[in-house]
Amino acid sequence: MNHALDKLIVIGDRVLIKPNEAADKTKSGLFLPSGYQEKEQIQQGFILKAGPGYAIPGDSDSEAWSGKGNEVRYMPLQVREGDMALFLQKNAVEIKYEGEKYYIVPQSSILMVERDDF
Q1: CB neighbours of 62 closer than 8 A, spacing ≥ 6?
Q2: Cα first-last separation, the chain
Q3: Which terminus has fewer CB within 10 Å in the chain: N or C?
Q4: What is the DSSP letter of 61?
């Protein structure tokens, strides 16, 4: 991973994706929808960073003065760093960081992932 990206912290249920060059199928042979490149509704790329997940409220049973009930817990995301993701571009935010193009995408906009470690 690019060491410059180490400074970036992804928030909540979002992921940072480096888009791939346009292709009509994934490396494992999954064919992408015909005409998707022209419409640019579906994009693909590798997940470089993932947020901590969905925030779960802390215990409300503890006393407010104790400071124990204010810790935030997270339900982790299904996606992982290194996954190849197909995602809806309409919900993605395109950014440029140090001359490179990336997308910030909520997990709910990811249609599926391809993972090598199965």
Answers
A1: 68, 69
A2: 21
A3: C
A4: S
**Cα gap 9→112, rounded to integer Å:** 23
Structure token digits, residue 87: 């995602």
pLDDT digits (tens, 9 = 90+) for 49-86: 999 999 987 666 656 666 665 678 899 999 999 999 99
111 in helix, strand or coil? strand
- DSSP-derived secondary structure letter, 22: P
Residue 69: strand, helix, or coil: coil
Tokens standing for residue 113 = 């992932």
Q: Kindly list the strands in the beta sheet with 14-19, ordered across the sheet, starting from the edge strand earlier in the chain.
A: 93-97, 100-106, 14-19, 42-50, 84-88, 110-114
Radius of gyration over alpha carbons of the chain, in Å? Answer: 17
Q: CA angle, corner 107, sides to 103 and 113, nearest 5?
A: 85
CA dihedral 42, 114, 19, 29 (to 10 degrees): -70
